[in-house]
Amino acid sequence: MNTSILMAVWVVLSTGCAATTSFVSAKDPNFHGMLTELFVVSQVGSEGEISGDLFKTELERTAQGCGIRVGVTNMSKLELDPGIHLRRFKSFGSKYLLTLAATGGTKNDGTIVVSTYDARLYDASDQIVWRADVRLSLGGTIREDRGSTELARGLLIKLNTDGVTRWCASLVEPVTESDRGQPRR
Fold this sequence. Notes:
Layout: H1 3-15, E1 20-27, E2 37-42, H2 52-65, E3 69-74, H3 83-92, E4 97-108, E5 111-122, E6 128-137, H4 144-161, H5 169-172
Helix pairs in contact: 2-4
């Protein structure tokens, strides 16, 4: 094997491949959103696939840059007081609740490579007005912040393009590898 091939393999293995998200969604045709605030109860990170705290931080930061007020609470699969999340939602004061439930995934040699989530957006009358099957492919990502960033941005982009949240042009601008983890302007 020549040196250039070994060098290419080393670069791929040391940096990891980019994480990607895919969504299949449906929106209630009677719902005419353009939300500017949203509260999220999230099980992201409950399987150790990525950091739930990094996802929370990235989701709140990116949404804020779009003029959308977002609050996030992390829920473990072994939650002892699930009512705390409802109290946080009420304290936040949003009419809309988005739940992100971990539904499974795929492991390769003991490492999670794909995580799946069920996303449901409820209005004040507890009706589901938007729903999505979410698939986060970690693609060999070594740094968990890449998966957290990709999932947060992907979710906001999907809500944006489905007409659920107010339009935010910065979400549809391409993000380069050097932009990841950097505040968006």
